[in-house]
Design a protein that fits this description.
This protein is an alpha+beta fold and 354 residues long. It has two domains: 123 residues, Creatinase/prolidase N-terminal domain (Creatine Amidinohydrolase, Chain A, domain 1, 3-Layer(aba) Sandwich), CATH 3.40.350.10; 213 residues, Creatine Amidinohydrolase (Alpha-Beta Complex). It is built from ten helices and 19 strands. The strands form six sheets. A six-stranded mixed β-sheet has the order 4-3-2-1-5-6, with helices on both faces. A hairpin with a 4-residue loop joins β18 and β19. The longest helix has 21 residues. 45% of the residues are buried.
């Protein structure tokens, strides 16, 4: 899987003679390979340089580019400078979102062309998942769903948050995941009011909600889901909050379709939660794109005022967080279509009482 041709096709739209790709996610999107290397994409040809640790694998796996061993006494910047001079590159796009000031200074000192910020070129392409990317994400989510089914057997009074987080990691790895999408979040009781709580030695007790936010990577692409379950019979307030979050999520998913600004989808969830009297306790955006990275653009949030394209995969994760008491979040990944969306998450959403 690589996307050199898609990148090359976008160069005229951005007024570029070439695109420099050297961030870790950009390199993987472009080359379908993690080799700590660099790609130079022009309308007619692409070059991919890596070092001796990765060259054999790159020669086998990277297609659509001239693959060569860099660092033969020359930096990647020096090699790219030679290519730019030889092929008349005047305007070179670069990933300003990922490049440090120090790295920018090194590159511009070595490559005497106009450097044009062009992260948007790659992020725009990455927003729309093709069939290969989607297949990898569906498999990652299948493993995530399966891990949720497994972990229900382990959630009981006396189990620690960090123990549940470790078992989620183990289950996904055992089933074939390459790694976690991110460090799992497991929060019980009052810790659940922290949306990004770090799993601790805190023990699960009867009467707790347990919120689990986790995912894994397959084929370089991430999954992401959250479920909240009850241990022992929940209180009426707990049931009300859970039902409110579930309604917010279901109504939002029903409103999702390509061409609608993300802010409009966020507003659906915010209205449900606000009407229930919990508006002050839903402080984050409704969702974010997922792909090579766990947080990508665009998303469902108040700042997302542009129409979202078909093919984007975005989370829908409303939550209510009551400080010192408990929290509830329910999260699915959905793929936008012209007529609605496809929900990639298949774990049950009705309240599970263990």
């Amino acid at each position: 899987m690589n996307h050199f041709e898609k990148i090359a096709a976008k160069l005229p739209e951005y007024g570029l003679d070439a695109m420099l790709v050297n961030s870790e996610p950009g390199e993987f999107y472009a080359a379908g390979f993690h080799g700590e290397g660099v790609a130079l994409v022009t309308p007619g040809k692409t070059w991919y340089y890596t070092d001796s640790r990765y060259i054999e694998a790159a020669e086998q796996l990277v297609k659509g580019a001239e693959v060569d061993l860099g660092l033969r006494g020359k930096s990647y910047a020096a090699l790219v400078a030679e290519l730019c001079a030889a092929h008349g590159v005047k305007k070179l796009g670069f990933e300003e979102q990922y490049m440090s000031v120090a790295a920018y200074n090194r590159w511009t000192d070595a490559v005497k062309v106009e450097f044009v910020p062009a992260s948007a070129l790659l992020s725009g392409l990455r927003a729309v998942k093709d069939e290969e990317e989607l297949a990898a994400m569906k498999e990652a989510q299948r493993l995530t769903d399966a891990a949720f089914t497994e972990i229900l057997n382990d959630i009981k009074p006396g189990a620690a948050e960090c123990e549940i987080a470790a078992k989620l990691t183990y289950y996904m790895a055992r089933m074939g995941a390459e790694r976690n999408s991110f460090d799992p979040i497991v929060a019980c009781g009052a810790n659940g009011s922290k949306p990004h709580a770090i799993p601790s030695q805190k023990k699960i007790e009867k009467g707790h909600f347990v919120t689990m936010d986790f995912g894994c990577v397959v084929g370089g692409y991430c999954s992401d889901m959250t479920r909240t379950v009850a241990v022992g019979e929940p209180t009426d307030e707990m049931k009300l909050v859970y039902d409110t979050v579930l309604k917010a999520q279901l109504d939002s998913i029903a409103a999702v379709r390509a061409g609608v600004p993300g802010a409009d989808i966020h507003a659906v969830a915010a209205k449900v939660i606000g009407d229930a009297g919990y508006g002050d306790y839903f402080g984050h955006g409704l969702g974010h794109s997922v792909g090579i990275e766990i947080h990508e653009d665009p998303g469902f949030a108040p700042r997302c005022d542009k129409p979202i394209p078909a093919g984007a995969v975005i989370t829908v994760e409303p939550g209510i967080y009551l400080p010192g008491k408990f929290g509830v979040r329910i999260e699915d990944m959905v793929r936008l279509t012209e007529n609605g969306c496809e929900d990639l998450t298949h774990s049950p959403k009705e309240l599970i009482v263990l």
